[in-house]
Amino acid sequence: MDINIREFSESDLDEVRDIIHQNFKNPWSDRMILSANPFSYKTVAVLNNTIVGFLSGEIIYDEAHILMIAVDKNFQGRGVGKKLLIDFIDECISSGVNSVFLEVSESNKKAVRFYSDFGFYVYGIREKYYTTGEDAFLMKLNL
Hints:
Blueprint (H helix, E strand, L loop, with lengths): L3 E4 L5 H11 L6 H5 L5 E8 L2 E11 L2 E9 L8 H15 L4 E7 L3 H9 L3 E6 L9 E7 L1
Parallel strand pairs: 4-5
Antiparallel strand pairs: 1-2, 2-3, 3-4, 5-7, 6-7
């Protein structure tokens, strides 16, 4: 699959919203998807002119934070998330980042395994982090 990663733009909103709604019980609002600050890093994965994945993160000096990775359900398990994450990690390395952080639902074993395969490890728990009352694993990658 020839997946290209490019910067997210406002014109991507409809496709990205659909992907997020496929993946999350409490999806981001349009305002959250579009929100940006000087540290924002948002990309989309594109296959045959169709958006199949989205990454939102922040790179703040020597630390970075992954806020979301979402892949179209029809393309999961085909390297889309991997390509988005590798692109983000490469950008972090070139920006002088030492550590990448994220939160993931402790019941999302698939995501925990995905991040662990890249060298992320659980370093803590945020109790009742999600609106469902579920805890979040705090994960970290040292670069």
